[in-house]
Write a structure and sequence with these properties.
The structure holds three protein chains of three kinds. By secondary structure, chain B is an all-alpha fold. Helices cover 75% and strands 1% of the residues of chain B. In chain B, strand 1 and strand 2 form a beta hairpin. By secondary structure, chain C is an alpha/beta fold. The chains are: A mainly alpha, B mainly alpha, C alpha/beta. Chain B: Keywords: Membrane, Transmembrane, Transmembrane helix.
Chain lengths: 158, 506, 325
């Protein structure tokens, strides 16, 4: 997320071309699915689709002419980032099936694991786990009890 | 004189207690992404049934104003707007927090919110009937042009490539069409899923696009989330006041923009704060510092969004048309209590109305001590919490908050998918702000356009409807001015730079 | 010895009291087995609308009658479709109920991808409706419905009318009236009643299809030309009904409550009785009528016939709309 100074990098044109092409595909999809909408409902998506089509082409042309600049990617732990994405995605998909509390506790404990960069000691594990469970319990109580939000119960427990 | 007496009734111990409790609760609710002011107000409505109408209003108003202010905490400390009104606060608030000035940013946001709230509240008190008439002058066509005006702000919001900014806005606009169309009634882009019928919820999209990237970046490196402050140095109140004083015109201008935008039902705090942000940036001599932690950016957005609270009550009270979603809930509560809006609010029911206005002003002032207290604590805890706790906690709040908006588990999936996509897009140069702007302005632009088109067909001249009204011509002129200004200023800078270079060489 | 006796007596009295208490509570429980705890009332719209307001009014009397709370929750999206399509997956124990609206639950399934069928929804009561009304501003040149019709006949399509949404109660009302009066107007859909009212008050349109409730809320600025009730509405004794003027049009937005299909019939019946009781409460009636609603009592025994009749009516209009496109 850090904005770093813009530098030319060898892969940047490739990224822009890919982005431009993706935009074109998106725009084409939007236009395709707008084909059997009623006239009033179709005006807006069609206009946006056409505009996106133009913008996407412009981006490709710009990149081919080498005028596009892209910031280089920040170094980082790719494995941990990927793990986070997978965990959060799985969490959102299992909310209903596992139940809100079960899937949340599971996901949060896993996230705690990947967000920790130092060595674990038994004491630290216990302290962190207890803190985390207390925070979850607090917010769960706030939403389910005080705010009457019907959180999915799922197949195991509340 | 009588009105003053009614206003003083807001200082009764019970009403004061409600204002304090409301502001504190509101701040906490607003600071949690996903817990919106609308929801907080809706949950409390049954509690207020047993109270006198004016006390009920004071409680609801205090929560509302506190929540709008509280939205800035999450924006500053976690780069996630707690409420949509705080989108623009992330632009400078988060960079300030990253470099260790989070405490100063929170103090500035507190001072700005109080000033904005006071301006909005005073406008409500003095000018309500007059300003309500202005609101009615805005028809579908004006809303359409206003949305187009908002979209031109993309050019000033997107760092780097303007073209990518427009692509981002296009993606947001497309996302806004998912679900059942208001005009035409078609179901669009749902691909047969009944969960998508309701469309992409703006706040869940907001949470996803801003919060998920923060989480992904947090686990990328072992370095601290925010730079901790050098030593214990309080809330930097004096420093904040000095900066505030320097930015007084900026604050006043933003507060006025906020009040005016809020009078238009449906426009809302997010547009108000974006407009005043880009206006502050345009007027500032340090415009290139905006987006990198410029205090004036926070002043602009936070005065503007708190001014929308008072401003939004104007159409609600005078016309019975809610200015913002929380206003709709408050209006409903009033109707249940057998209370009518309209001119009676300022005649037969003046005691209730003016006591409430007094209470709103009191609540706004109370934000200063309460906000500084809670803000200091929030900053300290975010800075001192280890990543292993911070990451799951933020993630949990994101998930539960998104779910709670519409009690829909599928919204959580949409939020996560948008978040991951947003993170990838941000790496490739498409920032979340244009996408969110497109999502918010899309329905306004579309409905305005189609309604204007139908009106034009009925009168036989579509062009006449879109270009024939003085108010819309005014907005068009403003749009053109704003769109051309960056070009003009760049050219001026270039010629100015050449002159300087020339002088230096001689 | 004496002391011991008193203690004994005390104990005896206490146990007798406890037994009495126990007995009386079991008796009470037998008298009204349902509800034993709070009931979740899901409104498939956002807070602040008419469905929300009427639910809020019911909330107070529900507690008076049952001693338990009616907890209002919102599940907005797709004009209610998101909520209704998930209703039957919810717990069918009577502690989850959901507000339903006509014509929504009839018209939405006719469209593609609503995610439910009208027959899927187990309604147990329809308790009120907001009668359709054709509204104009106080200073409008249309003094009577005839003025409006004359203007629309003079230049077909030139008269603009605002309303909330497409395929909605307002849109249907406009279609029905156009057919009955043989006129053509331009219907302009807005998002929600608030925006539609703003368009009328700002003179963006010449008239609005709204409800008596809209007229009641904004009585200082607008007046109905006619209302779609059987008899004149008590709030507007001077405003004629469409029927009086020769247009056979009664109806509006009806509100009811449904349970998940798996809910046992006896529990559903209990619920229906509770809400009928709320409807019968004179205080409740008064506050509802002051807001412009008209109370009806289509309870669990009548609701099927009522729905069948409504379905026939809307089907006719919908067919006409499709043919017109």
């Amino acid at each position: 997320m850090n904005s770093r100074p813009d530098v030319h990098s060898s892969g940047s044109a490739g990224v822009s071309i890919a982005l431009g092409l993706a935009t074109v595909v998106l725009a084409a999809g939007a236009l395709w699915f707008a084909r059997d909408m009623s006239m009033l409902a179709a005006i807006f998506p069609r206009t946006i689709g056409v505009l996106l089509l133009i913008f996407g082409c412009c981006l490709v042309v710009q990149a081919l002419r080498g005028r596009e600049r892209v910031s280089p990617q920040a170094p980082g732990h790719w494995g941990r980032q990927l793990a986070l994405v997978v965990i959060v995605l799985a969490w959102s998909l299992t909310l209903k099936w596992l139940g809100f509390l079960a899937s949340s506790v599971l996901a949060c404990v896993l996230l705690m694991g990947i967000a920790h960069f130092h060595a674990w000691s038994a004491r630290r594990v216990v302290v962190y786990l207890v803190t985390l469970l207390l925070i979850i319990a607090g917010f769960y109580g706030l939403f389910a009890g005080l705010l009457n939000v019907p959180l999915p119960r799922g197949r195991f427990w509340g | 004189m009588e009105t003053l007496g009614f206003m003083l009734a807001a200082l009764s111990p019970f009403n004061l207690l409600l204002a304090v409790a409301g502001v504190a609760a509101g701040i906490i609710i607003g600071s949690l992404p996903g817990l919106s002011a609308t929801m907080a107000v809706a949950v409390l409505v049954p509690v207020t049934f047993g109270m006198p109408t004016e006390s009920a209003l004071i409680l609801l108003g205090a929560i509302y104003t506190g929540a709008i202010y509280g939205g800035s905490y999450a924006a500053i400390l976690v780069n996630t707007p707690g409420t949509p009104s705080a989108i623009a606060t992330t632009f400078d608030g988060y960079p300030m927090a990253r470099r260790g000035d989070g405490d100063l940013a929170v103090t500035l946001s507190t001072l700005s919110s109080v000033i904005g709230g006071l301006v909005g509240g005073l406008a409500l008190f003095c000018l309500a009937p007059l300003l309500a008439l202005v609101a009615l002058k805005f028809g579908p066509v004006e809303y359409f042009w206003l949305a187009i005006f908002g979209l031109t702000l993309i050019s000033s919001l997107s760092e780097g490539s303007t073209l990518k900014g427009f692509i981002g806005a296009g993606i947001g606009l497309l996302l806004s069409t998912v679900g059942v169309a208001v005009v035409g009634g078609d179901t669009r882009y749902t691909f047969g899923s009944q969960f998508l019928l309701g469309g992409v919820e703006t706040i869940s999209a907001l949470i996803g696009l801003y919060c998920i990237p923060v989480l992904i970046e947090l686990v990328a490196t072992p370095s601290e989330h925010l730079k901790p402050p050098e030593a214990s140095r309080g809330v930097r109140f004096r420093e904040g006041v000095t900066l505030m004083f320097k930015g007084k015109w900026n604050a006043l201008r933003s507060a006025i923009i906020g009040t005016i935008v809020a009078i238009l039902p449906g426009a809302g705090g997010s547009i108000a704060s974006l407009v005043s942000y880009s206006e502050a940036r345009r007027a500032s001599p340090r415009s290139e510092q905006f987006g990198k932690g410029e205090p004036d950016g926070i002043i602009a957005t936070e005065t503007a969004n708190n001014a929308t609270v008072g401003g939004g009550f104007i159409p609600t009270f005078v016309l019975g048309i809610p200015g913002t979603p929380p206003d709709a809930v408050i209006l409903g509560a009033l109707l249940v209590q057998g209370f009518r809006t309209g001119p009676e609010m300022f005649t037969t029911n003046a005691s209730v109305t003016y006591t409430f206005m007094g209470g709103l002003l009191v609540a706004t002032v109370l934000m200063l001590p309460i906000g500084l207290l809670i803000g200091r604590y929030a900053f300290k805890s975010i800075v001192s919490v280890p990543k292993a706790i911070l990451v799951p906690t933020i993630a949990f709040m994101t998930v539960i908050g998104t779910y709670a908006i519409r009690n829909n588990p599928f919204d959580v999936v949409v939020m996560v998918v948008l978040g991951v996509a947003g993170w990838l897009l941000a790496r490739w140069g498409i920032k979340p702000s244009p996408i969110v702007l497109g999502l918010i302005l899309g329905p306004i632009a579309e409905q305005g356009f189609v309604q204007g088109y139908l009106m034009g067909n009925a009168t036989g001249s579509v062009a006449g409807v879109f270009f024939g009204r003085p108010l819309s011509l005014g907005i068009i002129a403003l749009t053109v001015l704003f769109a051309l200004y960056p070009l003009w200023s760049a050219r001026r800078k270039r010629t100015h730079g050449e002159v300087v270079a020339h002088e230096q060489s001689t | 010895m004496r002391q011991r006796n008193t203690i004994h007596a005390c104990l005896k009295a206490a146990s007798a009291m406890a037994a009495a208490l126990l007995f009386s509570t079991t008796l009470q429980a037998q008298e009204s087995q349902f509800p034993e705890r709070d009931v979740q009332y899901i409104i498939p719209f956002g807070p602040g609308g008419e469905s929300d307001i009427s639910a809020r009014l019911q909330q107070k009397y529900f507690q008076q009658i049952t001693g338990n709370q009616l907890i209002i929750q919102y599940m907005a999206g797709g004009g209610g479709a998101v909520g209704w399509s998930q209703l039957n997956e919810m717990d069918g124990d009577g502690y989850t109920i959901m507000g339903t609206n006509l014509p929504h639950i009839i018209l939405q399934p006719m469209q593609q991808g609503a995610g439910y069928q009208t027959e899927d929804i187990k309604n147990f009561i329809f308790f009120h409706y907001s009668p359709d009304a054709l509204l104009v501003t106080n200073d409008s040149p249309y003094k009577t419905l005839d003025d409006f019709i004359a203007a629309a006949k003079k230049t077909p399509g030139a008269v603009t009318v605002s309303g909330s949404g497409t395929y909605s109660a307002n849109d249907i009302a406009n279609q029905r009236f156009e057919a009955l009066a043989d006129i053509t107007t331009t219907y302009i859909p807005f998002k929600g009643t608030g925006a539609s009212v703003a368009a009328l008050l700002g003179d963006q349109v010449q008239a609005e299809w709204g409800y008596t409730t809209t007229a009641a809320n904004h009585s200082d600025k607008m007046r109905p030309l006619a209302v779609a009730t059987d008899e004149r509405h008590p709030l507007f004794p001077d405003v004629p009904t469409f029927k009086e003027l020769g247009y056979d049009m009664t109806g509006g937005a009806y509100r009811g409550i449904a349970v998940p299909r798996s809910t046992p019939d006896d529990v559903t019946r209990e619920l229906s009785e509770i809400f009928s009781d709320i409807n019968a409460n004179p205080e409740f009636r008064k506050s509802m009528e002051a807001l412009g609603f008209v109370l009806i009592d289509e309870d669990v025994d009548q609701v099927e016939d009522f729905l069948a009749e409504q379905q026939r009516q809307y089907q006719r209009v919908a067919e006409r709309m499709d043919a017109g496109q």
